[in-house]
Design brief:
Elements: E1 10-12, E2 18-20, H1 24-36, H2 44-64, E3 66-67, E4 80-85, H3 93-98, E5 102-103, E6 106-113, E7 124-127, H4 135-141, E8 148-151, E9 163-168, E10 171-176, H5 178-183, E11 187-188, H6 190-195, E12 197-198
Parallel strand pairs: 4-6, 4-7, 7-8, 8-9, 10-12
Antiparallel strand pairs: 1-2, 3-11, 5-6, 9-10
Helix pairs in contact: 1-2
């Protein structure tokens, strides 16, 4: 699947970052900017809000910089599903970010999964922090399926997740396990790899 952005247009985000649909080059520039962007938060409530507004835009960009095998979509017009397992930390941010957007002709949609057994059609799976303790069960449920996994935590337990978010020094970073992506037949753009931090592929001892 070739990565493409949606139709031209712009939207004002709540944290004063103006976002529009991009070609691949512009998307990469935005992604790089968010890697370096300091959250500069004044309260715990603001921290959750701004952090997940940023992560919502990251997920949208991950969709643009990922190629799935042709059998991941039964039809060229079926939606690209962003799944969330566990309590949704995004509020309305993710829905607002992907509204009316497409990637390679696929509209973006969100589904919520209470448990690993509920995961059906899914292309990007966001594993929330409360669900990290069940990460082995989650990964087993989608084993050998072309699902891009994204964890909201970066620790030894999530080492086999393909993309792992970390907040360090008031900045949102992400690390990529390329071996896990290859094993699931999910291809990540070299442009995305260049702005990610290197991450070991094997689970290390605590």
């Amino acid at each position: 699947m070739k990565q493409e952005g949606g139709a031209p247009g712009s939207r004002q985000l709540p944290f004063d970052v103006r976002r529009s649909t991009f070609d691949v080059r512009c998307s990469l520039l935005l992604l790089c900017a968010f890697v370096l962007l300091s959250l500069n938060l004044g309260s715990a409530k603001a921290q959750v809000s701004r952090e997940y507004q940023l992560k919502a835009v990251f997920l949208y960009n991950f969709a643009q910089f990922t190629d799935w095998p042709t059998n991941a979509f039964a039809d060229d017009k079926l939606p690209l599903v962003i799944g969330i397992i566990g309590p949704d930390p995004f509020g309305s941010a993710l829905e607002e970010t992907i509204r009316n957007e497409t990637v390679a002709g696929h509209p973006l949609t969100i589904q919520h999964y209470p448990s690993p057994a509920d995961i059906k059609t899914c292309h990007i799976l966001f594993i929330t922090q409360p669900e990290v303790r069940h990460v082995d069960e989650i990964l087993k449920a989608i084993d050998r399926k072309p699902v891009l996994t994204v964890s909201d935590a970066d620790n030894p337990a999530t080492a086999q997740v393909m993309i792992r978010f970390a907040v360090e020094n008031n900045k949102v970073h992400f690390r990529i396990n390329t071996e896990a992506a290859r094993a699931a037949n999910v291809s990540l753009s070299s442009k995305l790899l260049r702005v990610a931090e290197a991450a070991p592929s094997r689970r290390s001892a605590p």
